[in-house]
Amino acid sequence: MSDPLFEFLCRMGDNTLVLGHRVSEWCGVAPVLEEDIALANTALDLIGQTTLWLNLAGEVEGKGRDADALAFRRDVWDFHNVLLVEQPNGDFGQTIMRQFLFDAWHRGYLTALTGSSHTQVAAIAEKSLKEVTYHLERTTDTVIGLGDGTEESHKRMQSALDRLYPYIGEMFFKDAVDEAMISEGIAPDPTSLRAAFDSLLDEVLAKATLTRPDGTFAHKGGKSGQRHSEHLGHILAQMQWLQRAYPDATW
Amino acid sequence: MVTDKPDEKTIWQWLDAVPDPEIPVISLIDLGIIRDVQWRDDTLEVTVTPTYSGCPATRIINLDIETALRSHGVEKIALKTQLSPAWTTDWLTERGRKRLEEYGIAPPQPAGGPSHCPLCKSDRVERISQFGSTPCKAQWRCQECLEPFDYFKCI
Questions:
Q1: What would the mean pLDDT of A84-98 be, rounded to a whole number?
Q2: Shortest Cα distance from A128 to chain B (angstroms)?
Q3: pLDDT category of residue B111 using cuts at 50, 70 and 90
Q4: In 3-state terms, what secondary structure has residue A163?
Q5: In A, which residues are within 8 Å of B85 by CB distance?
Q6: CATH number for the B8-87 domain, one of 1.20.1640.10, 3.30.300.130, 3.40.50.300, 3.40.50.10860?
Q7: What is the pTM of this model?
Q8: What is the torsional sign of CA A230, A231, A236, A241?
Q9: What is the ipTM of this complex?
Q10: Cβ distance A143 to A206 under 8 Å?
Q11: How close is the nearest chain A Cα to the Cα of B152, in Å?
Protein backbone atom coordinates (compact mmCIF):
# COMPACT_ATOMS: atom_id res chain seq x y z
CA MET A 1 0.00 0.00 0.00
CA SER A 2 1.25 3.49 -0.81
CA ASP A 3 1.44 6.10 1.95
CA PRO A 4 -2.07 6.05 3.49
CA LEU A 5 -2.09 9.83 3.94
CA PHE A 6 -1.37 10.35 0.23
CA GLU A 7 -4.05 7.80 -0.58
CA PHE A 8 -6.57 9.48 1.72
CA LEU A 9 -5.91 12.90 0.20
CA CYS A 10 -6.29 11.50 -3.33
CA ARG A 11 -9.64 9.99 -2.36
CA MET A 12 -10.85 13.36 -1.12
CA GLY A 13 -9.59 15.15 -4.22
CA ASP A 14 -10.76 12.48 -6.66
CA ASN A 15 -14.30 12.59 -5.26
CA THR A 16 -14.56 16.35 -5.74
CA LEU A 17 -12.73 16.26 -9.09
CA VAL A 18 -14.86 13.59 -10.72
CA LEU A 19 -18.11 15.00 -9.35
CA GLY A 20 -17.04 18.55 -10.24
CA HIS A 21 -16.35 17.43 -13.80
CA ARG A 22 -19.66 15.58 -14.02
CA VAL A 23 -21.63 18.56 -12.75
CA SER A 24 -19.79 20.90 -15.13
CA GLU A 25 -21.19 18.84 -18.02
CA TRP A 26 -24.47 20.68 -17.39
CA CYS A 27 -22.92 24.05 -18.13
CA GLY A 28 -24.96 25.65 -20.90
CA VAL A 29 -27.58 22.87 -21.14
CA ALA A 30 -29.41 22.89 -17.77
CA PRO A 31 -33.23 23.17 -17.85
CA VAL A 32 -33.31 26.83 -16.80
CA LEU A 33 -30.69 29.56 -16.55
CA GLU A 34 -30.75 29.76 -12.73
CA GLU A 35 -30.12 26.03 -12.42
CA ASP A 36 -27.39 26.22 -15.01
CA ILE A 37 -25.64 28.88 -12.94
CA ALA A 38 -26.21 26.98 -9.71
CA LEU A 39 -24.73 23.77 -11.14
CA ALA A 40 -21.75 25.62 -12.61
CA ASN A 41 -21.12 27.28 -9.24
CA THR A 42 -21.34 23.95 -7.44
CA ALA A 43 -18.87 22.44 -9.91
CA LEU A 44 -16.56 25.41 -9.41
CA ASP A 45 -16.54 24.95 -5.63
CA LEU A 46 -15.79 21.23 -6.06
CA ILE A 47 -12.92 21.90 -8.47
CA GLY A 48 -11.56 24.53 -6.07
CA GLN A 49 -11.63 21.97 -3.27
CA THR A 50 -9.93 19.47 -5.57
CA THR A 51 -7.03 21.85 -6.06
CA LEU A 52 -6.56 22.12 -2.31
CA TRP A 53 -6.72 18.34 -1.69
CA LEU A 54 -4.58 17.26 -4.62
CA ASN A 55 -1.94 19.94 -4.09
CA LEU A 56 -1.58 18.72 -0.52
CA ALA A 57 -1.47 15.12 -1.78
CA GLY A 58 1.36 16.04 -4.15
CA GLU A 59 3.20 17.83 -1.33
CA VAL A 60 2.86 14.80 0.96
CA GLU A 61 4.02 12.47 -1.80
CA GLY A 62 7.13 14.60 -2.37
CA LYS A 63 7.70 13.63 -5.98
CA GLY A 64 7.02 17.05 -7.43
CA ARG A 65 3.48 16.33 -8.59
CA ASP A 66 0.92 19.11 -8.14
CA ALA A 67 -2.89 19.04 -8.44
CA ASP A 68 -2.74 19.32 -12.23
CA ALA A 69 -0.30 16.43 -12.57
CA LEU A 70 -2.46 14.25 -10.35
CA ALA A 71 -5.68 15.22 -12.12
CA PHE A 72 -4.46 14.94 -15.68
CA ARG A 73 -1.73 12.30 -15.65
CA ARG A 74 -3.18 9.40 -13.73
CA ASP A 75 -5.21 6.66 -15.33
CA VAL A 76 -8.43 5.00 -14.17
CA TRP A 77 -6.85 2.53 -11.75
CA ASP A 78 -5.12 5.34 -9.84
CA PHE A 79 -8.37 7.25 -9.25
CA HIS A 80 -9.89 6.45 -5.89
CA ASN A 81 -13.21 8.27 -5.91
CA VAL A 82 -16.39 6.53 -4.79
CA LEU A 83 -18.50 5.02 -7.60
CA LEU A 84 -21.42 7.37 -6.87
CA VAL A 85 -19.67 10.44 -8.25
CA GLU A 86 -18.78 8.89 -11.61
CA GLN A 87 -22.36 7.85 -12.35
CA PRO A 88 -23.81 9.57 -15.42
CA ASN A 89 -25.82 12.76 -15.03
CA GLY A 90 -28.99 11.18 -16.38
CA ASP A 91 -31.82 13.68 -16.23
CA PHE A 92 -31.80 16.74 -13.99
CA GLY A 93 -33.49 14.76 -11.21
CA GLN A 94 -30.77 12.12 -11.20
CA THR A 95 -28.07 14.79 -11.09
CA ILE A 96 -29.75 16.48 -8.13
CA MET A 97 -30.31 13.18 -6.29
CA ARG A 98 -26.66 12.19 -6.79
CA GLN A 99 -25.57 15.61 -5.53
CA PHE A 100 -27.85 15.41 -2.50
CA LEU A 101 -26.55 11.96 -1.49
CA PHE A 102 -22.96 13.11 -1.92
CA ASP A 103 -23.50 16.46 -0.15
CA ALA A 104 -25.11 14.70 2.82
CA TRP A 105 -22.11 12.37 3.20
CA HIS A 106 -19.62 15.15 2.40
CA ARG A 107 -20.93 17.54 5.03
CA GLY A 108 -20.79 14.90 7.77
CA TYR A 109 -17.31 13.80 6.77
CA LEU A 110 -15.91 17.35 6.46
CA THR A 111 -17.43 18.33 9.79
CA ALA A 112 -15.49 15.51 11.41
CA LEU A 113 -12.34 16.45 9.47
CA THR A 114 -12.35 19.98 10.92
CA GLY A 115 -11.12 18.28 14.11
CA SER A 116 -8.29 16.48 12.27
CA SER A 117 -4.90 16.16 13.93
CA HIS A 118 -3.39 17.26 10.59
CA THR A 119 -3.55 21.08 10.49
CA GLN A 120 -3.73 21.39 6.71
CA VAL A 121 -6.43 18.73 6.44
CA ALA A 122 -8.45 20.54 9.11
CA ALA A 123 -8.00 23.88 7.30
CA ILE A 124 -9.14 22.50 3.91
CA ALA A 125 -12.11 20.85 5.62
CA GLU A 126 -13.05 24.11 7.37
CA LYS A 127 -12.93 25.99 4.06
CA SER A 128 -14.84 23.33 2.11
CA LEU A 129 -17.46 22.83 4.79
CA LYS A 130 -18.90 26.31 4.31
CA GLU A 131 -19.38 25.68 0.60
CA VAL A 132 -20.73 22.18 1.08
CA THR A 133 -23.23 23.25 3.73
CA TYR A 134 -24.60 25.65 1.14
CA HIS A 135 -24.72 22.90 -1.51
CA LEU A 136 -26.61 20.60 0.84
CA GLU A 137 -29.11 23.31 1.67
CA ARG A 138 -29.90 23.70 -2.02
CA THR A 139 -30.00 20.02 -2.92
CA THR A 140 -32.22 19.26 0.10
CA ASP A 141 -34.70 21.93 -1.02
CA THR A 142 -34.58 20.73 -4.61
CA VAL A 143 -35.04 17.04 -3.74
CA ILE A 144 -38.07 17.97 -1.64
CA GLY A 145 -39.43 20.34 -4.30
CA LEU A 146 -39.14 17.80 -7.10
CA GLY A 147 -40.09 14.73 -5.05
CA ASP A 148 -43.19 16.43 -3.70
CA GLY A 149 -43.80 18.16 -7.03
CA THR A 150 -45.69 17.01 -10.09
CA GLU A 151 -46.47 13.40 -10.88
CA GLU A 152 -43.69 13.40 -13.47
CA SER A 153 -41.04 14.99 -11.22
CA HIS A 154 -41.97 12.61 -8.38
CA LYS A 155 -41.61 9.61 -10.67
CA ARG A 156 -38.20 10.77 -11.90
CA MET A 157 -36.89 11.47 -8.40
CA GLN A 158 -38.02 8.07 -7.18
CA SER A 159 -36.31 6.32 -10.08
CA ALA A 160 -33.15 8.39 -9.50
CA LEU A 161 -33.16 7.31 -5.85
CA ASP A 162 -33.75 3.65 -6.77
CA ARG A 163 -30.89 3.77 -9.24
CA LEU A 164 -28.37 5.54 -6.98
CA TYR A 165 -29.28 3.92 -3.67
CA PRO A 166 -26.80 0.99 -4.02
CA TYR A 167 -23.96 3.52 -4.31
CA ILE A 168 -24.49 4.98 -0.81
CA GLY A 169 -22.82 2.13 1.08
CA GLU A 170 -19.35 2.67 -0.36
CA MET A 171 -19.11 6.15 1.18
CA PHE A 172 -19.33 4.58 4.65
CA PHE A 173 -17.16 1.56 3.96
CA LYS A 174 -13.94 1.29 5.98
CA ASP A 175 -10.64 -0.18 4.77
CA ALA A 176 -6.96 -0.21 5.75
CA VAL A 177 -6.41 3.41 4.61
CA ASP A 178 -9.24 4.54 6.85
CA GLU A 179 -7.84 2.48 9.74
CA ALA A 180 -4.49 4.23 9.35
CA MET A 181 -6.15 7.66 9.24
CA ILE A 182 -8.30 6.88 12.28
CA SER A 183 -5.33 5.70 14.32
CA GLU A 184 -3.44 8.92 13.59
CA GLY A 185 -6.48 11.06 14.35
CA ILE A 186 -6.40 12.46 10.80
CA ALA A 187 -9.81 11.29 9.63
CA PRO A 188 -12.96 9.88 11.23
CA ASP A 189 -14.26 6.33 11.07
CA PRO A 190 -16.61 6.48 8.06
CA THR A 191 -18.92 3.88 9.61
CA SER A 192 -19.54 6.22 12.56
CA LEU A 193 -21.17 8.77 10.24
CA ARG A 194 -23.82 6.46 8.79
CA ALA A 195 -26.48 6.92 11.49
CA ALA A 196 -26.60 10.71 11.09
CA PHE A 197 -26.68 10.32 7.30
CA ASP A 198 -29.55 7.84 7.52
CA SER A 199 -31.65 10.06 9.74
CA LEU A 200 -31.13 13.04 7.44
CA LEU A 201 -32.00 10.86 4.44
CA ASP A 202 -35.20 9.61 6.11
CA GLU A 203 -36.21 13.13 7.08
CA VAL A 204 -35.68 14.55 3.59
CA LEU A 205 -37.26 11.58 1.79
CA ALA A 206 -40.34 11.83 4.00
CA LYS A 207 -40.77 15.51 3.10
CA ALA A 208 -40.13 14.66 -0.54
CA THR A 209 -42.77 11.87 -0.42
CA LEU A 210 -40.15 9.44 -1.73
CA THR A 211 -39.77 5.83 -0.67
CA ARG A 212 -36.45 4.54 0.54
CA PRO A 213 -35.60 1.35 -1.35
CA ASP A 214 -35.15 -1.94 0.49
CA GLY A 215 -31.86 -3.72 0.54
CA THR A 216 -28.37 -3.18 1.85
CA PHE A 217 -26.39 -4.11 -1.26
CA ALA A 218 -23.55 -1.70 -1.97
CA HIS A 219 -21.44 -1.42 -5.11
CA LYS A 220 -17.79 -1.07 -4.14
CA GLY A 221 -14.47 -0.72 -5.90
CA GLY A 222 -14.11 2.98 -6.65
CA LYS A 223 -12.62 4.08 -3.35
CA SER A 224 -10.09 1.23 -3.46
CA GLY A 225 -9.54 1.71 -7.19
CA GLN A 226 -10.02 -2.01 -7.77
CA ARG A 227 -13.14 -1.85 -9.92
CA HIS A 228 -14.47 1.40 -11.33
CA SER A 229 -17.58 1.55 -13.45
CA GLU A 230 -17.14 1.90 -17.20
CA HIS A 231 -18.02 5.58 -16.92
CA LEU A 232 -14.79 6.81 -15.32
CA GLY A 233 -12.67 6.02 -18.38
CA HIS A 234 -14.98 8.10 -20.54
CA ILE A 235 -14.80 11.03 -18.10
CA LEU A 236 -11.01 10.91 -18.09
CA ALA A 237 -10.83 10.61 -21.87
CA GLN A 238 -12.64 13.92 -22.13
CA MET A 239 -11.03 15.62 -19.14
CA GLN A 240 -7.45 14.62 -19.80
CA TRP A 241 -7.11 14.55 -23.59
CA LEU A 242 -5.65 18.03 -23.95
CA GLN A 243 -2.89 17.49 -21.38
CA ARG A 244 -2.24 14.03 -22.85
CA ALA A 245 -2.02 15.33 -26.41
CA TYR A 246 -0.17 18.55 -25.55
CA PRO A 247 1.67 17.94 -22.28
CA ASP A 248 2.13 21.07 -20.14
CA ALA A 249 -0.08 23.18 -22.42
CA THR A 250 -1.19 26.40 -20.72
CA TRP A 251 -3.18 29.42 -21.79
CA MET B 1 13.07 51.69 -5.68
CA VAL B 2 12.27 52.29 -2.04
CA THR B 3 15.16 53.11 0.16
CA ASP B 4 13.19 53.00 3.42
CA LYS B 5 10.68 50.27 4.00
CA PRO B 6 7.18 51.81 4.09
CA ASP B 7 5.41 51.01 7.34
CA GLU B 8 2.60 48.47 7.47
CA LYS B 9 -0.07 51.14 7.91
CA THR B 10 0.96 52.66 4.57
CA ILE B 11 0.84 49.22 2.92
CA TRP B 12 -2.72 48.69 4.20
CA GLN B 13 -3.66 52.07 2.66
CA TRP B 14 -2.15 51.05 -0.66
CA LEU B 15 -4.06 47.77 -0.62
CA ASP B 16 -7.24 49.65 0.23
CA ALA B 17 -6.91 51.33 -3.17
CA VAL B 18 -6.98 47.95 -4.96
CA PRO B 19 -10.54 47.20 -6.12
CA ASP B 20 -12.12 43.76 -6.08
CA PRO B 21 -11.85 42.63 -9.72
CA GLU B 22 -15.48 41.49 -9.92
CA ILE B 23 -17.13 44.08 -7.68
CA PRO B 24 -14.94 47.13 -8.25
CA VAL B 25 -16.87 49.41 -5.85
CA ILE B 26 -15.28 47.67 -2.89
CA SER B 27 -11.60 47.27 -2.10
CA LEU B 28 -9.71 44.15 -1.12
CA ILE B 29 -9.66 45.52 2.42
CA ASP B 30 -13.46 46.00 2.36
CA LEU B 31 -13.78 42.38 1.26
CA GLY B 32 -11.82 41.27 4.34
CA ILE B 33 -9.48 38.92 2.49
CA ILE B 34 -6.18 40.56 3.44
CA ARG B 35 -5.39 38.92 6.76
CA ASP B 36 -1.90 40.17 7.49
CA VAL B 37 0.86 42.39 6.18
CA GLN B 38 4.37 42.21 7.55
CA TRP B 39 7.99 42.65 6.65
CA ARG B 40 10.34 39.71 6.87
CA ASP B 41 13.75 41.27 6.35
CA ASP B 42 13.41 42.97 2.98
CA THR B 43 10.47 40.85 1.80
CA LEU B 44 6.93 42.07 2.22
CA GLU B 45 4.69 39.19 3.20
CA VAL B 46 0.98 39.58 2.47
CA THR B 47 -1.43 36.94 3.78
CA VAL B 48 -4.56 36.49 1.69
CA THR B 49 -7.52 34.21 2.31
CA PRO B 50 -9.73 33.07 -0.59
CA THR B 51 -13.46 33.89 -0.55
CA TYR B 52 -14.49 30.61 -2.23
CA SER B 53 -12.05 27.78 -2.91
CA GLY B 54 -12.71 27.80 -6.64
CA CYS B 55 -13.22 31.52 -7.16
CA PRO B 56 -11.42 32.43 -10.41
CA ALA B 57 -10.92 35.99 -9.12
CA THR B 58 -8.41 34.74 -6.53
CA ARG B 59 -5.59 34.58 -9.08
CA ILE B 60 -6.45 38.01 -10.47
CA ILE B 61 -6.53 39.39 -6.92
CA ASN B 62 -3.04 38.04 -6.21
CA LEU B 63 -1.81 39.58 -9.45
CA ASP B 64 -3.46 42.92 -8.60
CA ILE B 65 -1.86 42.95 -5.14
CA GLU B 66 1.57 42.37 -6.64
CA THR B 67 1.06 44.97 -9.35
CA ALA B 68 -0.10 47.58 -6.82
CA LEU B 69 2.78 46.97 -4.44
CA ARG B 70 5.34 47.01 -7.26
CA SER B 71 3.95 50.31 -8.52
CA HIS B 72 4.76 51.72 -5.06
CA GLY B 73 8.32 50.43 -5.38
CA VAL B 74 8.13 47.26 -3.27
CA GLU B 75 10.42 44.75 -4.95
CA LYS B 76 10.29 41.59 -2.90
CA ILE B 77 6.77 40.34 -2.29
CA ALA B 78 5.63 37.01 -0.88
CA LEU B 79 1.93 36.16 -1.07
CA LYS B 80 0.78 33.65 1.50
CA THR B 81 -2.55 31.82 1.23
CA GLN B 82 -4.32 31.15 4.50
CA LEU B 83 -7.36 28.84 4.63
CA SER B 84 -8.06 28.87 8.33
CA PRO B 85 -9.88 30.68 9.83
CA ALA B 86 -12.06 30.43 6.72
CA TRP B 87 -13.23 33.67 5.19
CA THR B 88 -16.57 34.90 6.44
CA THR B 89 -18.77 37.74 5.23
CA ASP B 90 -18.54 39.07 8.81
CA TRP B 91 -15.16 40.42 7.69
CA LEU B 92 -16.71 42.81 5.18
CA THR B 93 -16.17 46.35 6.40
CA GLU B 94 -19.11 48.64 7.21
CA ARG B 95 -17.98 50.87 4.37
CA GLY B 96 -17.89 47.84 2.07
CA ARG B 97 -21.44 46.86 2.99
CA LYS B 98 -22.63 50.42 2.33
CA ARG B 99 -20.90 50.55 -1.04
CA LEU B 100 -22.36 47.20 -2.07
CA GLU B 101 -25.85 48.47 -1.37
CA GLU B 102 -25.26 51.72 -3.26
CA TYR B 103 -24.01 49.65 -6.18
CA GLY B 104 -27.24 47.59 -6.18
CA ILE B 105 -25.95 44.48 -4.40
CA ALA B 106 -27.76 43.67 -1.16
CA PRO B 107 -25.16 43.12 1.62
CA PRO B 108 -25.11 39.79 3.51
CA GLN B 109 -27.49 39.33 6.44
CA PRO B 110 -27.27 36.69 9.18
CA ALA B 111 -30.91 35.85 8.46
CA GLY B 112 -29.76 34.33 5.18
CA GLY B 113 -31.49 36.75 2.83
CA PRO B 114 -31.49 40.48 2.07
CA SER B 115 -33.48 42.68 4.44
CA HIS B 116 -34.72 44.86 1.59
CA CYS B 117 -34.37 45.70 -2.10
CA PRO B 118 -31.17 47.72 -2.63
CA LEU B 119 -32.94 49.78 -5.30
CA CYS B 120 -36.39 50.76 -3.96
CA LYS B 121 -35.80 49.64 -0.32
CA SER B 122 -39.00 47.58 -0.18
CA ASP B 123 -38.85 44.59 2.16
CA ARG B 124 -40.99 42.48 -0.17
CA VAL B 125 -38.22 40.41 -1.72
CA GLU B 126 -38.04 36.83 -2.97
CA ARG B 127 -35.25 34.45 -3.85
CA ILE B 128 -34.80 33.42 -7.48
CA SER B 129 -31.72 31.25 -7.02
CA GLN B 130 -29.24 30.40 -4.27
CA PHE B 131 -26.43 31.05 -6.75
CA GLY B 132 -25.58 34.00 -8.97
CA SER B 133 -23.12 35.51 -11.40
CA THR B 134 -20.13 34.97 -9.09
CA PRO B 135 -19.56 32.39 -6.32
CA CYS B 136 -20.23 35.01 -3.65
CA LYS B 137 -23.69 36.07 -4.85
CA ALA B 138 -27.27 34.79 -5.08
CA GLN B 139 -30.15 36.08 -7.21
CA TRP B 140 -33.14 37.77 -5.65
CA ARG B 141 -36.04 39.83 -6.94
CA CYS B 142 -38.03 42.71 -5.53
CA GLN B 143 -41.79 42.14 -5.59
CA GLU B 144 -42.42 45.89 -5.29
CA CYS B 145 -40.29 47.37 -8.10
CA LEU B 146 -39.98 43.95 -9.81
CA GLU B 147 -36.24 44.42 -10.39
CA PRO B 148 -33.96 41.42 -9.99
CA PHE B 149 -30.87 42.09 -7.87
CA ASP B 150 -27.76 40.38 -6.55
CA TYR B 151 -27.48 39.42 -2.91
CA PHE B 152 -24.05 38.90 -1.37
CA LYS B 153 -24.31 35.43 0.22
CA CYS B 154 -23.78 35.28 3.97
CA ILE B 155 -21.19 32.66 4.86
A1: 98
A2: 7
A3: confident
A4: helix
A5: 126
A6: 3.30.300.130
A7: 0.95
A8: positive
A9: 0.90
A10: no
A11: 13
